[in-house]
């Protein structure tokens, strides 16, 4: 066992001497410059997910969920929305509830998710559905169809910023930078403000809005930010 340990020690010493003789150093032992790069960008969402809830108790005269579903589909088709691609059922519930001095009744609720691509389209859907007394609509979330692409581009931009900073600092002291010897992501933020912006207009509560407000509906952008830590050889 001792012989093996001694042999390993000799090999390590030989490797150290070999690299020293050939002028190669660990990156910690050579001059380098360390900088952080940050970059932010904004993306307009093109994926807006609406939740639509049908409830028999929401209408006078108890219009059935099945009838409301037919009205919903017809209204969306008139807006040239592809039902097969954009509308999905999220939940269906038929539950018994006991009412005072009344027999047991069944209350049906059906929940849908509708995908639209713009604030203008959100306004058109809301206007069309409120005309048939379907107003339990709210925005669940927003995103972008190429969000991963934009995330990668943001990280690359942050790295480019770091390189530019390193080059400027090195030039200021009459030096130059070499290869990057260390790159690390510090953080990547992905914040969406569009949902809150719309809910403040009253969509979540089901209130009818003035037509001018609907037509001028704008979503806040999706904000992407990235930060990277880098080390470059300093020549």
Question: Quick gist of this model?
Answer:
The chain has helices spanning 2-21, 65-78, 83-86, 119-130, 147-172, 194-199, 211-215; strands spanning 32-43, 47-55, 87-97, 105-116, 137-143, 177-192, 222-234.
Layout of helices and strands, plus pairs?
Blueprint: H1 2-21, E1 32-43, E2 47-55, H2 65-78, H3 83-86, E3 87-97, E4 105-116, H4 119-130, E5 137-143, H5 147-172, E6 177-192, H6 194-199, H7 211-215, E7 222-234
Antiparallel strand pairs: 1-7, 2-4, 2-5, 3-4, 6-7
What does this structure look like?
This protein is of the alpha+beta class. It folds into two domains: 26-45 and 145-235, Translation Initiation Factor IF3 (2-Layer Sandwich); 47-143, Alpha-Beta Plaits. 37% of the residues lie in helices and 34% in strands. The protein contains seven helices and seven strands; from the N terminus they run αββααββαβαβααβ. It has helices at 2-21, 65-78, 83-86, 119-130, 147-172, 194-199, 211-215, and strands at residues 32-43, 47-55, 87-97, 105-116, 137-143, 177-192, 222-234. Strands 3-4-2-5 form a four-stranded antiparallel sheet. It has a three-stranded antiparallel sheet with strand order 1-7-6.
CATH class of the largest domain: Alpha Beta
Proportion of residues in β-strands: 25-35%
Indicate the overall shape. rod-shaped
CATH topology of the largest domain: Translation Initiation Factor IF3
Number of domains: 2
From the structure above, extract its key features:
single chain, 235 residues, alpha+beta, Translation Initiation Factor IF3, Alpha-Beta Plaits, 2 domains, 4-stranded antiparallel beta sheet, 3-stranded antiparallel beta sheet, 7 helices, 7 strands, 37% helix, rod-shaped
């Amino acid at each position: 066992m001792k012989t093996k340990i001694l042999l390993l020690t000799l090999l390590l010493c030989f490797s150290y001497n070999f690299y020293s003789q050939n002028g190669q150093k660990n990156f910690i032992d050579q001059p380098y410059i360390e900088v952080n790069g940050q970059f932010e960008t904004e993306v307009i969402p093109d994926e807006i997910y609406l939740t639509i809830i049908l409830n028999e108790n929401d209408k006078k005269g108890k219009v059935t969920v099945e009838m409301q579903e037919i009205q919903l589909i017809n209204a969306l088709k008139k807006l040239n929305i592809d039902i097969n691609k954009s509308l999905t059922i999220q939940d269906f519930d038929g539950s018994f509830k006991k009412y005072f001095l009344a027999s047991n009744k069944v209350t049906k609720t059906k929940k849908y998710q509708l995908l639209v691509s713009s604030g203008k389209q959100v306004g058109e859907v809301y206007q069309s559905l409120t005309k048939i007394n379907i107003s339990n609509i709210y925005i669940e979330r927003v995103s972008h169809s190429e969000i991963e692409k934009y995330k990668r581009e943001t990280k690359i931009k942050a790295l480019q910023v770091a390189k530019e900073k390193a080059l400027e600092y090195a030039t200021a002291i009459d030096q130059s930078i070499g290869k990057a010897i260390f790159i690390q992501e510090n953080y990547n933020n992905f914040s969406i403000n569009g949902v809150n912006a719309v809910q403040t207009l009253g969509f979540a509560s089901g209130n009818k809005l003035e037509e001018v407000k609907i037509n001028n509906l704008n979503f806040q952008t999706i904000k992407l930010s990235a930060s990277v830590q880098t080390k470059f050889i300093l020549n």
